[in-house]
Amino acid sequence: MLTSEDDAYEAVGRLAAGAALDQALDVTDPDAWIHLDCGVRELAWQRPELFHSNASASGRRLMGHRTTSLPAVEWPGTPKDGELALALCHRDGRIREAALAHAEGRPELLPLVVIRSADWAEPLRECARALLAATPRHQLAAHTALILRIGRRPRGSHAQELLTEALRAGPAAPIEALLSSEDRAIARLAHRIAAERRLLPPAQLARIAARHGDVVVQSLCAEAAVAALGEGADDGFTEIVAPLLASRSPQVRSAGVTALRRAGRHADAEPYLTDRSALVRACARWILRQDGTDPAPLYRALCADPTTRPAAAVGLGECGVREDAELIRTLLAHPAPAVRACAVAGLRALDVVRVDDVRPLLEDPSPAVVRQATAALLPWAARLPHELLHALMAEDRPRHQHVAAIRLTRAAGAHAPHPAEPARPAGPDEGPRDGGAAVTAPAIPTSTAADAGTGERNSPFLEAVRRVLRWQRGTRRSIGR
């Protein structure tokens, strides 16, 4: 594998010295071929004597009149694969085109023919595409990774189209070999074609959807498995629907919930009314409505004791009416943090947030509750007292309260610190969480801070804002080092 520019140069040097292709580079690695192509083009400027040329013996191009055509490119005998590999990558299009004439019937050079099919020179590109069209389809499948990489180039779709057609019309063995590839693009293509050709049984598709690490493959296999489930076919529940419902992916679980209608098991969607994913909850409500069941009364009953199913509050907010707000508000003081967080989310879904109800939750010990409360109060951040935000920024407060105060301060339009202020060193346990970048306040221009007046710039509240923001900057710098 050519992992660096120096490795590519070394491979070019070995080929120029007469080494065989499999000795000069890893012929199974698509990146090795791409790096070889780039390396030859760069070295052709620096050391032209290494390469075949239509010029003098030194390798430098003839400098003739612009109306004088250059001599034709010829080899004294049958060129070796190494020579043709260098010529196929040469910066001179005439040399690349002449090498293509000798590449037919040489499967060792097929990767470079694939690269040339995306060449910027149209005559050369069409010549390479003609060679690919005459190539046996099983040879194209052997270079799937390279073809998919070249397919991302502006003119590289032709080889990918030929490969896709070959896989769709050819035997199943090449596709089955690609299904286990760790390359994400290869796995997606193989599973898409396998699903189209129905090469995999529905039960296997469901298992792949539940366990695969790529979300695109998960969605492809889940949709194919559900489509293969017959209308009212309860016999496929254990093999197809159950694995989908047990998946960690919300997309796959939602497909499993949707499949409950095909299996005629609408009532089995009730447990998923309180799923942690909003997508799954929406699918569960749809399934119940298809059977004539209104999910809102079920949510109201669950809110009577939501300890084991805390998402009942947010589910009621998603499908209830404004009169349900009082029931959800009673859960803001629930002893379970998950219930309090879902209650705030439910009030947001109903659009019935009252600042006085949610504001005390900014001091909640649970980060999840504080995040939901912050999101609910952002539209009314200017109505929050500065004393509260100042207290949240105290050094003895937990980090999630610091972050909440910063977000609300920014939303209220408070001044950020001057860019010249020094950064506060980060503590040993300080580090940005996933949303850390979203709460970083940029410094405002000096003139803006000056217009605010000396008294406001030196107020205890703004001084606390500056202190916490310096701490945030110092945390990011320490992580960056």
Keywords:
481 residues, mainly alpha
Short description:
The protein has 481 residues and is an all-alpha fold.
The span between the termini is: 30 Å
How much strand content do the residues show?
Answer: under 5%
Major beta sheet summary: none
3D shape = elongated
Class inferred from helices and paired strands: mainly alpha
Question: Could you characterize the architecture of this molecule?
Answer:
The protein contains 28 helices and no strands. The protein is elongated. The chain has 481 residues and is mainly α. The longest helix is centred in the last third of the chain and has 21 residues. α23 runs parallel beside α25.
Task: Please give the structural blueprint.
Layout: H1 5-16, H2 21-24, H3 30-46, H4 81-88, H5 93-103, H6 110-116, H7 122-133, H8 137-141, H9 144-150, H10 157-169, H11 173-178, H12 184-197, H13 202-211, H14 215-228, H15 237-245, H16 250-262, H17 278-290, H18 295-302, H19 312-319, H20 325-329, H21 337-350, H22 355-358, H23 367-377, H24 386-392, H25 399-412, H26 446-451, H27 454-457, H28 460-480
Helix pairs in contact: 1-3, 4-5, 5-7, 6-7, 9-10, 12-14, 13-14, 13-15, 14-16, 15-16, 16-17, 18-19, 19-21, 21-23, 23-25, 24-28
